[in-house]
Write a structure and sequence with these properties.
Blueprint lengths: L2 H7 L2 H4 L1 H21 L7 H4 L1 E8 L5 H12 L3 E7 L2 E8 L5 H11 L5 E7 L1 H30 L2 H25 L5 H26 L6 H29 L3 H36 L3
Antiparallel strand pairs: 1-3, 1-4, 2-3
Length: about 290
């Protein structure tokens, strides 16, 4: 059975339940975290303040053992390791009052050979300022996106479907980030902004194919849009996977991770939910 036969025999309204269920689960994850920690999502030191010591090494790192060793001297510390072809990148996050030079010496004494390192320190107030600025930027991006979408399509249902699909991509990505322990940082925020643009691309591709074109049946136009959109998504996923695997840089790892999650989430959001909303609207209006 090919894609067309399967889609013709499947109730498209029932398929819409899949992305809706994913959205509800991700919203529940965010609210659960808010109820237990007071924040909807974890934030990095750039957005909440603290210190970060970045170390590049060729050695394998036992995260739990290193964390136990450093916690005895510095209290609560967070350690993440990003692996790539060029080596391992160790990120050590702690409170803003620690001596990072001493911490680096302790890492060396632990037995890790340091190829290179960098220090980062941000005060709590500056971190809050960064977070406020990123939040404003995101809200403005959504507002301008909504204006452009309404100008292009001039009809409420398709326009709102595009906006909701993009919103769902962002919320679901944030929810999954909490599950895998990825904090919201300036790098991951940049990834989310890219997600917003990519989500709109696929949704506008779909909406244009179904509403602006008139040759072929609604099924023909739907299948054509799905094939084009999935090809775009798969080629992008391959490129991002290569970036994730090849790079040991924290920033590139975070951006690649956010985009990979969002692209996978965008598949059901666009090709099951948004497509279903558009088909329902076209059937209701008799625009075949």
């Amino acid at each position: 059975m090919n894609l067309r036969e399967w889609y013709e025999k499947t109730n498209y309204k029932k398929l819409m339940l899949i992305p809706i269920l994913i959205f509800i689960i991700c919203v529940a994850i965010l609210f659960y975290r808010e109820s237990t920690t007071g924040e909807f999502f974890a934030k990095s030191i750039e957005l909440k303040g603290g210190t970060q010591t970045s170390i590049i090494t060729n050695q394998a790192v036992n995260v739990d053992s290193l964390k136990n060793y450093l916690s005895q001297k510095y209290g609560d510390v967070e350690i993440r390791v990003a692996s790539g072809i060029g080596g391992n990148s160790i990120l050590i996050r702690a409170s803003e009052d620690i001596n990072q030079t001493q911490l680096l010496d302790d890492v060396k004494n632990y037995g890790i050979k340091v190829n290179s390192y960098s220090f980062e320190k941000i005060g709590a107030q500056l971190g809050k300022s960064f977070f406020a600025q990123t939040r404003i930027a995101f809200i403005l991006a959504f507002i301008f996106m909504g204006i452009v979408v309404f100008i292009i399509f001039r009809t409420p249902a398709p326009s709102l479907a595009v906006i909701f699909a993009a919103f769902s991509d962002i919320i679901c990505t944030l929810g999954i980030m909490q599950v895998i322990g990825l904090e919201l940082s300036l790098a991951s925020f940049a990834g989310l902004m890219m997600v917003l643009g990519y989500s709109i691309d696929t949704d506008i591709l779909l909406t244009t194919r179904l509403l602006k074109r008139r040759h072929g049946t609604i099924i023909d136009r739907s299948i054509s849009a799905v094939k084009t959109g999935l090809t775009m998504t798969m080629t992008t996923l391959v490129a991002l996977s290569a970036l994730y695997l090849a790079s040991g840089a924290r920033t590139l790892h975070e951006i690649a991770t956010v985009l990979i999650i969002a692209l996978l989430i965008d598949i059901p959001n666009t090709w099951l939910m948004n497509l279903g909303i558009l088909r329902w609207w076209i059937d209701r209006k008799g625009l075949r």
